[in-house]
Amino acid sequence: MSSTSFPKEIHFTSPIPQEAQHILSKDAVEFLAVLHRTFDKRRLELLENRKKIQAELDQGRPLTFLPETKHIRDSPSWACAPPAPGLEDRRVEITGPTDRKMVINALNSGSKTFMADFEDSNSPTWSNMVLGQVNLYDAIRRQIDFETGGKQYKLSEKPAVLLVRPRGWHLPEPRLLIDGKPISGSLFDFGLYFFNNAAELLKRGSGPYFYLPKMEHHLEARLWNDVFSLATSHLGLQQGCIRGTVLIETLPAAFQMEEILYELKEHSSGLNCGRWDYIFSFIKKQRAHKECVFPDRSDVTMTVPFMDAYVRLLIQTCHKRKVAAMGGMSAQIPIKNDADANEKAMAKVRADKLREVTAGHDGTWVAHPALVKIALDIFNENMKGPNQYHIRREDVNVTDKQIADPSVPGKITEKGVRDNVSAALSYCAAWISGNGCVPINYLMEDAATAEIARVQLWQWVKYSSKTDSGKTITPSYLQTIFSEESSKVSKLPGIDPSHVKIASEYMSSQVKAEWPSDFLTSDLLVHLEGVGTVGGATKKSNL
């Protein structure tokens, strides 16, 4: 099917792959147009609201619990929907992008659920976005098996329950224009998956389940709720069949957890500690305040005050409203050639999961199938029922000052600076190349790691921070490190040196900026347009 098969108001800037014709059918795309025309104006208004709140923060107005929604927080009379089929027990969830091999391995991993990711562990090339939808369509119908290199990949009898994470509200899908404007990436990812699979999932005893990223306000959750309601009505399905778990991964959202649950009430399946993006947001939102300059990224652990406060509040909030309080990601991957190093890495995973289950979390995330059994063993030993909703954490009393507490013990080291430069360059270059899930130093990193690295480098320059050896961090000091690390990254397998050059120029511009950009994925998106389409042409622009 070509774009000429659609009304002139609907235009694809990249061809639809042959194998995705059924995914981007005329009916499916017209459904996307309904979502776009109904909700895009509100989406853009909410994004403008983020800018207003940021301006207030820059002027010194602190974030607080909202006085106008105090009645929601104080009311004991409301609760969220009961767990949907397959979501009663979520003790271990594996996450990853939507390529065919990954989907099969994740669904077969032994985890309770698999979060198929169109967001931060995915590079949104056209082929990744569209063929990822094909892979999920086939997995749901158990027609995804394939063979490559003499090895067979086949779904097990009892695969994990499938959840999908669409892109955040801020990202567009530039390859589909409706009425001359790009559709929201969120609505594109959600809409295609829901239209093509919701009825089939319900028929098979499951349902359309989602993870919702990057929200900064409860009105953004209300928008998702309205999208869910309209989509369900449009397809003639039962209201309430959708479930959404919200990642609390921005500082403003931490002050509105109950309000977010309230807005999604009948569609809510809980909250998740999106901890790496949360660190990124903590720095970015408090960018105008020198006291919020952090030490090395490795020092910002789950036990520092602001992270501990946010975890305790999330567990208390979720269990008060009878939904899942999901723990965070362990990004470690096996170290195959060093048994001692591997055991130390796995010991960190065990300690992290033990901290989560004893705190009251109902489940946790891993990035690699080898970690599933480790996490399961910890949760099986310490969580005998399907969840811990009964652990109310009524001992918790988290204040707004505790959530925004910038005190993090540690120091800025030259190694920490270099690690940030290396991580940012490696990830950005891989992302431009079409890979959003990148192994770096035996950790499976996604965009959040690069974002922390980017804003830390920016704030260290902005506030003339010094390393523990007394060196002031300036653009010229960083430029030497950018050059040295670029040479190393360019030699890594699967990395295009021209993409490293783009990444280095981008990072150099960022550390000199008055304020850091909101998202590197927004900034670098132009370099992906056309990737994976006929001829493989890539549209690029100067940064």
UniProtKB/TrEMBL annotation:
Enzyme Commission identifier(s): 2.3.3.9
Pathway linked to the protein: Carbohydrate metabolism; glyoxylate cycle; (S)-malate from isocitrate: step 2/2
Domain Malate synthase C-terminal: 411-524
One Gene Ontology cellular component annotation held by this UniProt entry: peroxisomal matrix
Enzyme's top EC category: transferase
Domain of life of the native organism: Eukaryota
GO biological process, one term: tricarboxylic acid cycle
Domain Malate synthase N-terminal: 10-71
Gene3D superfamilies assigned to the protein according to its UniProt record, in alphabetical order: Malate synthase, domain 3, Malate synthase, domain III
InterPro entries in the record: Malate_synth_C_sf, Malate_synth_sf, Malate_synthA, Malate_synthase_CS, Malate_synthase_TIM, MS_C, MS_N, MS_N_TIM-barrel_dom
Stretches assigned to the Malate synthase TIM barrel domain: 161-403
Active site per the UniProt annotation: R165 (proton acceptor), D446 (proton donor)
Signal peptide boundaries: none
Pfam family, any one: MS_C
Reaction equations catalysed: glyoxylate + acetyl-CoA + H2O = (S)-malate + CoA + H(+)
Assigned keywords, A-Z: Glyoxylate bypass, Transferase, Tricarboxylic acid cycle
Gene Ontology molecular function: malate synthase activity
Family recorded in the similarity comment: Belongs to the malate synthase family.
Name assigned to this protein: Malate synthase
